[in-house]
Structure formats: C-alpha cells, structure tokens
Amino acid sequence: MNELETKLDRVTALLQKYDLDSLLLRRVSSFAWATCGADSHINTADRYGVAYLLLTPEARYLITNNIEKPRLEQEEQLGEQGWQFRVTAWHKEDAVAELTRGRRLGADDPYPGAADLSAELSRLRAALTPQEGDRFRTLGRLCAEAMEAAAHAVHPGQSEYQIAGLLAQAAESRGVQATVILIATDERIFNFRHPLPTSKKLDRYAMLILCGRRQGLVCSLTRFVHFGPLPQAIRHKAEAVAQVDAAFIAATRPGRSLGQVFGEAAAVYAQTGFPDEWRLHHQGGLAGYEPREIIAAPDSFETVAAGQVYAWNPSITGTKSEDTILVGEPSNEILTAIPGWPLLSRNVGGLTIERPAIWER
Asked: Which among 68, 106, 249, 313 is least surrounded, fewest beta carbons within 10 Å?
C-alpha cells in the first residue's frame, strides 16, 4: 500500500469512528499531510491555505480559486493524484458550502456545523509513514546545514535582525521555509524564552532558533555561539540542560507515555539543581506537519510509537537544548545533528547520548 492509500484508509477509519461521512481539511499542515507533501500556503502567517480538501465516500475534492489552480495542477500535480478540482473565480465564494450541504461533516479545526477533529488529525499527521520518515531525514540534514552556515557567519557587532537574515537565507536557499526564527544576544537570552529578533547588536553570546518546513514537515533546532571564554555559570547550566535533554531522548521509546517521559526529564531537572525551570517554558513534544503536533505535559497520556518524530526543547534560564529526533525500533535518530559541532556526552542508564555544546569561538 502506498503512502496516499495508507492515509485515505486512516481517514475512512476516523470517519467511521465518529459516524461522519466527510472530512474538510483547511489547515496548511493537513493539506500537506493528505497530499503527501503538497503546499497550499501563500501567507506564512495564516494557518489556512488557499486550497482546501474535502474527502467524501464519492470523491476527493480540491477546493480552490482560479488563481491557485494552475500551480496546484501543474507543479503539485494533484489532479494526477486523484483530487477533483472545484474551482471558483477569486472574487466568488468557494465551493465548501455547496459540497458539504447535508453531510455529517468533520473538520481539522472548528468549522460551522462540523465536528472538530483537530486533536485526532494531529495524531494522524504525527503517525508517519516510512516515506515521510525519509523526507524528515532530508529536512533534518538541510536544517542542520542551514544552522551551521548561519552560525559560522555570525560575529560580534551584528544586529539580531542581521543574524536572523543569515539564518533565513541559509534555510531558504536550501529549499527550506523558515517558519520560525528566534534570535537573542547576550542578556536577552536570559530574559526571554521566545526572543523575536531586534536591532540589538551582538557582544559575546548568541542564540539561534529555527523551525524549518519542507514538503509540509517541520524540524526544530537551537544552537548557541559564544565569543571568548564561556563563563562558568553558563557552562554549568549548559551541562545541566544537556543532561535533561539526554533524559528526554533516552526516555522517548515505543510504549512509553508522554507523561512518563516528561516525569523522567523533570526528575533530572531536580537532580541537576534546577527543579522549577521546566515550569518556565513548555518542553516540546510530538512533531510532524506542525512544529509540535502535541506538547507534552506531566499528565500526557499519548503513547510513543516507532516512526514518530519528537522535538524536545528543555531550557534553563540562559541555555537550552533542542534537536529533532526520529523514534526507531532499535534506537532514536537525531535528524538535525550538525557534523563537527562541539558536543557534550551524557550518560543515561548506560546509554551515551551526544548533545550540542555552546560553540566557543
């Protein structure tokens, strides 16, 4: 069974579970998932694309306007994939109301008259096929290359805007859409967990964060660069957060609940002397066609499965550790590892896990 057939079977099972007869997919992430990587976005700030999908027992419809039809048909080749185009003029109402009238409808987000299946769709998007796993490997490598190139180009005196531009250029030039870029330098690293770049200029310490999207899939990673000797207080925190991240990665194994994984990492926060730092920011979780399809919490009941992708992002004020990993049957694979980047070796239950250190330049 190919990837598309697998997903259509999963949609059929979902509709049967909720006694529905049709499914409307409007989110960019859901569109990419259902079409095996096609792109419906124009505005990166909008979660909804310029084309929707409607799956019914009779047909699979692609609903869009006359502006978008040529690209979706010629470049994305979605007609060849079996989607029936329902095209309206750009200034007319789309065909959703007509096609869904009288149907028992489910949707991937709140929609009038439809059952909200957003949580179920997050799980489906995260249940990756082998083909998606391969695409994730390619994306991880490209994101790692982009981060490495940007980190090499960073130097004191650059503004955070300039550093963000370096990272965006490195990602986009490799065919990766930079959906999230966060940059902080010096004291701003200690003040903000989500630092939008500013005009502030780098003195010694820089944090670079990237979420990169390609064929719908999203990888996340963070790296730090420090010019001159690293202060011992920062080094101590970096070593501690690396131990927490290693605990997350080691515990993310098939059959474990996200609550169990979270609990093991929270215990390491305490063991390293930072018991309350996990309360200051979410710790990451299950990834896929969104940066996080499900964010883990202490009481999360979701179960880890082989083939899933996770991005954990533990932080201790002034430091953080983040990569994207693929859960395998024998072991986990770090998709965004950067060859040659300085590493911290951490032991977890006899397993050695390498985490990125702060690059001292």
From this structure: 68
Residues 199 and 232 placed together within one structural domain of the fold: yes
Question: 125-157: buried (b, 16+ CB within 10 Å) or exposed (e) per residue?
Answer: bbbbbeebbebbebbbbbbbbbbbbbbeebeee
Both 48 and 135 in a single domain? no
Q: Look up the CATH number of the domain holding residue 118.
A: 3.40.350.10
Q: Are residues 122 and 148 in the same domain?
A: no
Contact in structure between 278 and 193 (CB atoms under 8 Å): no
99 plus 206 within the same structural domain? no
Q: Are 178 and 106 in contact (CB under 8 A)?
A: no
- 251-261 residue pLDDT tens: 999 999 999 99
Residue 290 zone, left/alpha/beta (φ > 0; ψ -120 to 50; rest): beta
Give residue 133's pLDDT: 97
The predicted-structure confidence for 335-349, as pLDDT tens digits, reads as follows 999 999 999 999 999
The tally of domains found in the chain comes to 2
CB 193 within 8 A of CB 280: yes
Nearest to 128 by CA among 330, 334, 306: 306
Over residues 89-122, the pLDDT tens digits come to 999 999 999 999 999 999 999 999 999 999 999 9
149 and 254 assigned to the same domain: yes
Residues 6+ apart with CB under 8 A from 186: 200, 202, 203, 204, 205
The whole-number pLDDT of residue 24 equals: 98
Domain end among 126, 143, 172: 126
Q: Residue 97 is part of which domain span?
A: 3-126
Amino acid in the structure at residue 129: T
| Domain match, 121 and 149 both | no
- Residue 1 in this model has a pLDDT that exceeds 80: no
Instruction: Tell me what pLDDT residue 58 has.
Output: 86
* One domain, residues 217 and 195: yes
